[in-house]
Amino acid sequence: MSETFTIINSTLDMVEELEAVQRASFPTMTEEELITAEKYAAQIERFPEGQLALVTDSGKIVASSTDFRTIAEAINFDHYEHRYIEVSDNNWLGHHQPDGDWLYGACIGVIPDYRRRGLSTMLYNARHNLVRRFNLRGQVTGGLLAGYGAYKNKMSVEDYVDKVIAGKIFDPTVSIQLKLGFTIYGIIQDYVDDPGCDNKAAFIVWNNPDYQP
Ligand SMILES: CC(C)(COP(=O)(O)OP(=O)(O)OC[C@H]1O[C@@H](n2cnc3c(N)ncnc32)[C@H](O)[C@@H]1OP(=O)(O)O)[C@@H](O)C(=O)NCCC(=O)NCCS
Fold it and tell me: Which InterPro entries match (predicted)?
């Protein structure tokens, strides 16, 4: 029988398992940037609706999503160069604004054995539903240019992104986000400390078509 998957709000009793999912999903991320059990607990307390766990029918957590609310002035659409560690307040989500009109999608990770089964698509759609439920303007994030590390000696990041947009290169993260309706505003040169993406991300935006001013 094929496995079925459900998205639920993360709860405090899950935080150790969430840390294990995070470590398996981001093997090249630095210790400083990983979300630990203690930080998952803080995130759940700060914005419970924005913390999602994807579980199998046997109750195993195989993917998760971390989100917070923000305002356009904090993100600054004209000067979007920023660092993940700062915007996420070292993953404590201290900059969460309960009345913020944008969702910042901080992190989605699916453990390797469960990839290519549509699970991140489920989580992105759950985020879109969260945006609609709170009547937010949309969702922003830094989409890690996860495949760029392997190309950095062959082409500039600008050329790489052009090829990703044109569908000539598949980027393991940003190509999926483009499929899900995000648009690329620009390149964030120094978003994380991760050789896999040469520290780079795309600043991506999804506008809520149902937003009511
Ligand atoms: C990026 C990541 C979240 C994708 O999760 P996933 O559950 O495997 O993605 P999905 O199965 O929902 O795939 C989404 C789409 O991309 C396609 N896709 C996924 N990986 C692919 C690959 N390596 N090559 C080609 N297509 C791929 C899928 O076929 C699917 O397309 P479809 O909707 O047309 O069928 C996952 O690989 C991961 O956790 N990576 C490490 C952490 C990370 O980079 N997170 C994002 C941080 S911003």
Answer: Acyl_CoA_acyltransferase (IPR016181)
Question: What pLDDT shows up at residue 75?
Answer: 75
Pocket of ligand 1 (CB under 6 A): 25-26, 108-110, 115-121, 143-144, 146, 170, 172-173, 176, 179
Q: Is residue 212 part of a domain?
A: no
Q: What is the pLDDT of residues 96-115, one digit of tens each?
A: 999 999 999 999 999 999 99
Q: Which of 116, 139, 140, 188 to mutate to test the pocket of ligand 1 (most atoms within 8 A of CB)?
A: 116
Structural domain that includes position 179: 5-207
Number of other CB atoms surrounding residue 154 within 10 Å: 8
In a domain, 202, yes or no: yes
Which tens digits make up the pLDDT trace of 64-84?
A: 999 999 988 777 788 889 999
The answer to the question of residue 13 being in a domain is yes
Nearest CA among 181, 138, 129 for reference residue 7: 129
Neighbour-count burial of 93, counting CB atoms closer than 10 A to its CB (0-12 exposed, 13-18 middle, 19+ buried): buried
Q: How much is the pTM? A: 0.94
| Alpha-carbon 142 to chain mean position | 7
Tokens, residue 166: 């044109």
Q: Give the residue, by CA position, lying nearest to ligand 1 atom 43.
A: 109
Instruction: Give which of 172, 211, 128 is closest to 202, Cα–Cα.
Output: 172
